[in-house]
Amino acid sequence: MKVMKLLFKINDMKDIRYKMLDAGYWMQDAGCRIQDAGYRDEQNKGFRLACFFFIMMIFLAACASKQNDLPIFGEREVSGTDTIYHKIAPFKFVDQDSATITNEVFKDKIYVADFFFTSCRTICPIMKTQMVRVYEATKDMPDVLLLSHSIDPEYDTVALLHDFAERLGVESKRWHFVTGVKDSIYKIAQTSYFATAMEDKAEPDGFIHSGAFLLIDKKGRIRGKYDGTKPEDVDRLVEDIKRLRAEHV
After folding, report:
1. Which of 10, 23, 152, 188 could crosslink 117 through cysteines, CB 3.0-4.6 Å?
2. 193 burial type by CB count under 10 A (0-12 exposed, 13-18 middle, 19+ buried)
């Protein structure tokens, strides 16, 4: 009997040891699972952090791009969630080839506008020299045009403007010299382009006008104003044309 009890005790102790080993394995397995869960949690944290930084990079890049955009000139109105910007008013003139020139000619085009007259002896010759530079700099840009308004339409006939363009050696499909009703030209200069253009008998040639070059985008909005008598300002204009083209890509 003593032997039997001893055997039972030994068997019970083996059973307990096996159970303890089994419990140890279970705890080890649980520990591995906890460790694995922790590792996965770290992975998830790393993934979420990477996503956060990626989104921030996109956001900052978008902000930087917006900051590099050229300003939009003129008054603006807010209608609900939309902002309505100042645009060049509808116009209708005639160019050096007797072609009718309206806003439609410049649809989906960037253009540079100015105001001059062919008999001007002061700033106009300088302006035209600088505008020729813009013409040459944009020769490989099919979406860029030039528009020069005569403020002396009574003298600057279509034939005279044609001769003027020929002497400059420019193509009418890229550079339009326009004439029209005097009051219409003065009005669009002052109210749309914010440029000076008027008769003034006190001036040497009888007219007063600014030497401004105006940069207009594909939506008919003013995006830049430059002194057409200063080469460094015209250099800036050429660079801004490139920037504006990049905005529309």
Report:
1. 152
2. buried
> How far is the first Cα of the chain from the last one, in angstroms, to the nearest whole number?
100
The pTM assigned to this predicted structure is: 0.73
Is residue 155 a contact partner of residue 117, using CB atoms and an 8 Å limit?
yes
Tens-place pLDDT, residues 103-145: 999 999 999 999 999 999 999 999 999 999 999 999 999 999 9
The CATH number assigned to the domain with range 84-247 reads: 3.40.30.10
Element at 111 (helix H, strand E): strand 110-116
pLDDT tens readout for residues 3-39: 444 334 444 444 544 444 455 544 555 554 545 555 4
Tokens 């550079």 belong to 175
148-177 per-residue burial string, b: 16 or more CB within 10 A, e: under 16? bbbbbbeebebebbbebbeeeebeeeebbb
94: Cα within 13 Å, side-chain hemisphere:
14
What gap in Å lies between CA 225 and CA 216, rounded to an integer?
A: 9
